[in-house]
Amino acid sequence: MTEPEFYKAETIFAAAQGLRCVVAPAKEGELADVIRRTGAHAAVVGVLPYRDGLYAVLPKGGVVARFGVGHDGIDKAAATRAGILCTNTPDTLHQSVAELTMLLVLAAARHLPAVTATLTSGRWQPRVGSEVRGRSLAVIGRGRIGTAVMQMANDGFGMNVVCAGRGDDFAIAARDADFISLHLPAHADTRHFLNRETLAILSPQAWVINTARGSLIDEAALYDALVAGRIAGAALDVFEREPYQPADSARDLRTLPNVILTPHIGSNTAEANARMAARALHNIRLARAGDYASMDLLNREVVRVLKETGNRNQ
Questions:
Q1: Which one is catalytic: 41, 183, 213, 275?
Q2: Rounded to an integer, what distance in angstroms lies between the CA atom of residue 236 and that of residue 233?
Q3: What is the pLDDT of residue 166?
Q4: 124 lies in which domain range?
Q5: Does 219 participate in catalysis according to the annotation?
Q6: pTM of the complete model
Q7: 282 is catalytic
Q8: Residue 51 is a catalytic residue
Q9: Which of 36, 81, 187, 242 is the catalytic position?
């Protein structure tokens, strides 16, 4: 497994019965070298993109196990052609990501980064914030995380919540919302879902929250909207390029006072990491047993490939 993922759940991986866990670099070429040298039959990977070399070194019936839910970094078509099973870890991180989403909503409502910065610099400058009870939240995405956010906001904080999916009318859901929280998967058709046209729909008091995928937002368009005061602010945990680099050097989100930035920590809690590690190992054991039906398979068509070739890594 890749080094960042191993150390997020070292206790779980180190105690894995029946499996020998080898720590490897996260970059694809170096990871492939370790797999080639050790003869590994599975790779537990994080958020980085894996486009070619990984699928050439794993055996047929091997596994690429995503430590997390989003899987846009895994080339499922290339894996299927190579007879590689791809999995993720659903139902393991929605609580953690939803909690961070609500933390960002609350931090925005109470100007938390700004008042913290002024106090730590020696200045006493209280600011008037606002309660979130009765405020409107548009949750864009009907998956497990979006549903968890909706329940927390409505049941825990008394917010007025509207939920919209990809096919629903974004304008109706978000036009008058105080907070817009994105929870869509990363696909070609959701890239820059929030762009100059969709940002123009939002009200001047709106805060954009993104704990899903960085590709959902056109960061240059977001910067321009923030500078012009067309929206109130943005709280982002994910970015198009990670570690964060501005899409345009003249449009650095880190320079703006109405932006809250965190380094992709939504699912990075001890509890979620333990669940993800256990689920990834479970999928690998299922693959070894040939129990494909019970796996969290992302490319189910690979089962046909394996049956036709008669190759199975058990």
A1: 213
A2: 10
A3: 73
A4: 94-261
A5: no
A6: 0.94
A7: no
A8: no
A9: 242
